[in-house]
Amino acid sequence: MHHCWLNGKITDVASAPFHFNDLGVLRGYGLFDYFRTYNGRPFQWDWYWERFERSARILRIPCPVTQQETRQIVSELFALQGGEDCAFRFLLTGGFTGDSISMHTPNFIIISEDLHHDAPGEHEKGIRVMTYDFVRDLPMLKSTDYKHLLILRHEFGERGVTDVLFHKDGYISELSRSNVFIVNGNKLITPHENILEGITRRTVLELARPDFEIELRPVTLQETLEAEEVFTTSTTKRVLPITGIDDRVIGSGRIGPKSQVLLDRINDLVRSW
């Protein structure tokens, strides 16, 4: 059974008293964050909290608890679900409203969830993605607005893809829920605008600095299609190769040697976390 903390009270998820007249439901006024534990410890906890607070400030939704208080809540939820590694989702909304527009007291929910498990062979074969002309609204924060992804998911099966690569005016930004890197020679290149600055992205950049020439800059769709290697990063994906974009095969069609190096480095990091 999974539990959640809602406004000061821990309960099982099914019993949480969350109502439809929340501004997150009525107006899409909400944000979230998502992280996981390794060996019982939240991965990059300070970085995740820093991003969560920044997102809340941008949306002007006050967070009702401190970082220290939240860490204690996470520990209690971790113990309740048996002490096995799991994921946590933070959800902060404008709260319940009487007139469908005014914010009074935000709702803050912390939910423990099962971990995402890799599809067999996915990190060797990589994934295929489709392109889509779009830039997320307020891309620097993790808002709850994922309607474009949910609409496009209906096309994934017929097109044989698992995700979508957003681009605009010839430049890529990100996948629906993860960052994008390209590799050419010893250069590791990733977009720096119109993106959510992912925590795994930040981790990979640190792991790569000793041996790669790093470029944070606009990245065109054309150079992405022509790159030696392309991969995506996120909490659930770590370093996951992108081996097909639309009808274009990237590189060898399997994980490239530089992507493999970075995947091995992050795997080594989390094993000893």
Characterise the protein shown here:
The longest helix is centred in the first third of the chain and has 15 residues, at 45-59. The strands form two sheets. Strands 7, 8, 9, 10, 11, 12, 13, 14 and 15 form a nine-stranded mixed sheet that branches. The chain has a six-stranded antiparallel sheet with strand order 2-1-6-5-3-4. Strand 10 and strand 11 (187-190) form a beta hairpin. The chain contains eight helices and 15 strands. It has two domains: 3-113, Aminotransferase class 4, branched-chain amino acid transferase, N-terminal domain (D-amino Acid Aminotransferase, Chain A, domain 1); 122-271, D-amino Acid Aminotransferase, Chain A, domain 2 (Alpha-Beta Barrel), CATH 3.20.10. With 273 residues, it is an alpha+beta fold. The chain is globular.
